[in-house]
Amino acid sequence: MTTTHAPAALPGGFGSDAPDGDFPRTVTHFGGTTRLDRLPWRVAVISTGNLDSLVSLGMVPTASTHNNSGEHVPAYLATSRRIDDDARDQLSRMADIGLRTAPDLELLAGLEPDLIIGSYRGAGLRLYDELSAIAPTILPEGKGFNWKQDFLLVAAAVGRTERARDVLAEYDRQVRALRARSAALGGPRVSVVRFGPAGLETHGTWSFCGSVLTDIGAHRPPSQSRHDNGTVLDLAAPDADLRGTVDAELLFFTRVRVEPAEQAWAAAAQCGWGALDAVRHGAARQVDAGHWHGNAGPSAALAVLDDVEAALR
Predict the structure, then answer these.
(1) What is the dihedral of CA 264, 266, 268, 273, to 10 degrees?
(2) What Å distances lie between residue 108 and 35, 41, 287, 308, CA to CA?
(3) Average pLDDT over residues 246-266
(4) What is the distance between the alpha carbons of residues 120 and 299, in angstroms, rounded to a whole number?
(5) SS3 308
(6) SS3 36
């Protein structure tokens, strides 16, 4: 099956025609159109990927949600070499307004944001009217595969499109270097699995990390070449055997410290985990779920590339 690349541009008519820095501006997004009378400074984000996008643009939101298996401030953002000490301090003081699927609207309103960024495919659409009653609200599409277009939409809202293009150009330069490195090594297959809240999952080409691997031309195991976000493996099946499902020359895995993930980790040992070629040859690398799966944005994508680069040295 032919893989497709994550959309790298906004759909026609989306975003804003206003030059960077000019306000007022009208932003066309997946929830409709929203007018911003002035440059927003107290931004609240409902989708965790949009936290990454905003920080990547040099702005730290006043408030953010978190996912059900991650920290309020993802470790990869807090320790990123791409942000300065002032941004790190602002992140440490950012208000937590609850789960991204159920934000605390009363707390959010009390923070008096001047812009709310949600997600059309997440809680943002369901809560759009309530959020819009608190502050102007825009909805990027959401889902990890759409991270590039959503980054550009966030940039259009805050008037930093040129900066967004610079960040994506940095990403493209690193992608080209890794594509060449991978080809020089014979194009090793790359497998990605997650021990998470649903158990053990493989991640296909329509996942966030899958889109990054597609960009560098990584070959994937047949079970991960599908156009899907994630597939849960049944480790309780009598014939469960990971060797034909997740093995590859290079294996990246993440572990989230929740009970279903711990149960899946224990079950994997009975289903051939230790017999995987990648495990036996020291090519299985545990990486951070925060940037591989939990937060879809340019800083997370660059962190994934850093992990792949380290594995290909």
Answers:
(1) 140
(2) 20, 15, 33, 38
(3) 91
(4) 21
(5) helix
(6) strand
| Best CA proximity match to 90, nearest among 60, 66, 111, 116 | 60
Assign domain 25-168 to its CATH superfamily: Nitrogenase molybdenum iron protein domain (3.40.50.1980)
pLDDT digits (tens, 9 = 90+) for 30-82: 999 999 999 999 999 998 789 999 999 999 999 999 877 667 888 899 888 88
DSSP code of 270?
T
Least Cα distance to 10 among 145, 179, 140, 194 occurs for: 140
| Tokens standing for residue 197 | 């809240």
Domain 181-311 has CATH 3.40.50.1980: yes
What phi and psi, each to the nearest 5 degrees, are found at residue 237?
-65, 145
Residue among 310, 288, 267 at smallest CA distance from 194:
288
Amino acid at 182: S
Beta-bridged to residue 33, according to DSSP, are: 28
Q: Which residues contact 109 (CB under 8 A, 6 or more apart)?
A: 134
Q: 3-class SS at 235?
A: coil
What is the C-alpha separation between 115 and 156, in angstroms, rounded?
Answer: 13
Q: Which of 66, 68, 47, 91 is nearest to 256 (CA)?
A: 68
Instruction: Tell me the one-letter amino acid at 271.
Output: C
